[in-house]
Amino acid sequence: MDRWKRAFSWWGSGALWLGALLVLAFARAFPAWSERYAAAVYPLLVRTVGACSGRFPFSLGEWVIYALAGSAAVWLARLAGRALRRDWRGLAARAGSGLKKILWTAAVIFLLYTFQCGINYYRTPFSAFSGLNVRPSTAEELAALTAELTETANALARQCAPEGGGPVRLPFSQREASLLGVQAMEALGEEYPALRGYYPPAKPVLFSRGLSYLDLTGVYFPPTIEANYNADAPAFHIPETICHELSHLRGFMREDEANFIAYLACRLSEEPIFQYSGTLTALIYSQNALYSVSPELYAETAALLDEQIWTDFSFNRAYWQQFEGPVAAVSNFANDTYLKANAQPEGVRSYGRMVDLLLADYRARHGL
Asked: Is the dihedral of CA 282, 285, 289, 290 positive or negative?
């Protein structure tokens, strides 16, 4: 029995990995099953695991990461201590024990990821629930969308402009922003039944600048089913990011669709800063797409931007430039690899596919 236990302590974690990988392979092969899971089972996890973690006023996932990093640091320090004392037998024993804990911890986290995130990547896309006709569009249609977003963003920028000048700021606390994000998503759920359900509030990360170094405005943490956002980022990012991360709690994991869902939610919000955040984010994507097909049309619409928007763009550029470096580059590479491994073969470029949904929405609203 003792021999079996010792053997299981090594290969048991591998069995968890294999089981999780088989579940993901099954989800990829049978998207109808993935949709049923995302629509019926995953919401139960949000109402239990997500509700429990939601009771904490801080990001529980962030502290889980700190605890794991601290444990790893202590383990390495003890290994170094035994090496300095030339206690090779003790070093080998502690190294083996620590390695088993790492393998089991990684296996459990991957298993939680599989059932609380991974399966959802293979569900029916949100575009199928939206009723929108997504199709190729002309440069003129893209220019018309960009012009409309520019006009809307200009009007909202004048509403959100601070009295003393400078970039826009949130007119309420981070806690209030999180609750307003929940309200916006609940309102959107009235229009799209696939988005109805329980939303625990999104949470600002305590060490938000750490996310900035990783070039991230938000992150969904599957083990605790938490939506987290970078509270240190320029203010116009925050409302859209909150709604973006909350959309993952409805099982829509594709980044392009989460961006579009966030835009729709912000558009429905009664708060001008939410409307501005969603519109400005959509405008950035449409501008980038327009520039790639017609720099001349891009220049025409860019010339119409309100001065407040240029102020926010300038502040945003300066903010992110201070974090450029190898950490951000590695983070982007890891994110790109992660997306490609989860049915988003275009990698980080998949964010640009949001424009197709924006164009489909534009045509639906204008009866085109």
From this structure: positive
- Cα distances from 161 to residues 52, 145, 148, 164, in angstroms, run 38, 24, 20, 9
Whole-model pTM: value is 0.89
> Do the beta carbons of residue 329 and residue 266 sit within 8 Å?
no
DSSP 248: G
58, 203 contact by CB (below 8 A): yes
SS3 category, 225? coil
As a whole number of angstroms, the longest Cα–Cα distance in the chain is 78
User: Residue 219 forms beta bridges with which residues?
Assistant: 228
**Mean pLDDT estimate for the chain:** 88
Whole-number Å distance between alpha carbons of 226 and 237:
18
- The Cα 304–Cα 316 span in angstroms is 19
DSSP string covering 83-152: HHTT-HHHHHHHHHHHHHHHHHHHHHHHHHHHHHTGGGGGS--THHHHT-------HHHHHHHHHHHHHH
Which amino acid does the sequence have at 162? Answer: P
Amino acid at 43: P
> What confidence tens digit (pLDDT) does each residue in 127-138 have?
899 989 888 888
Sequence-ordered list of residues with C-beta below 8 angstroms from that of 264, at least 6 positions apart, any chain: 188, 191, 192, 278, 361
Cβ atoms of 222 and 205 within 8 Å: the answer is: no
The strand ranges marked E within 173-259 are 203-204, 218-221, 226-229
Q: For tokens 């520019």, name the residue.
A: 150
For residue 162, the surrounding DSSP H or E stretch is: none
What whole-number distance in Å separates Cα of residue 349 and Cα of residue 255? 10
Residue 302: both structure tokens together? 């860019």
Q: pLDDT band for 341, please (50, 70, 90 cuts).
A: very low
Residue 350: band (very low, low, confident or very high) from pLDDT cuts 50, 70, 90: very low
Helix, strand, coil abundance in the chain, percent, nearest 5:
75, 5, 20
> What does 150-210 look like in DSSP terms, one character per residue?
HHHHHHHHHHH--TT-SS---SS-HHHHHHHHHHHHHHHHHH-GGG-S--PPPEE-TTHHH
Tokens of 60: 């529980």
Residue 320 half-sphere exposure, CB side, CA atoms within 13 Å? 16
- 3-state class of 325 per DSSP? coil
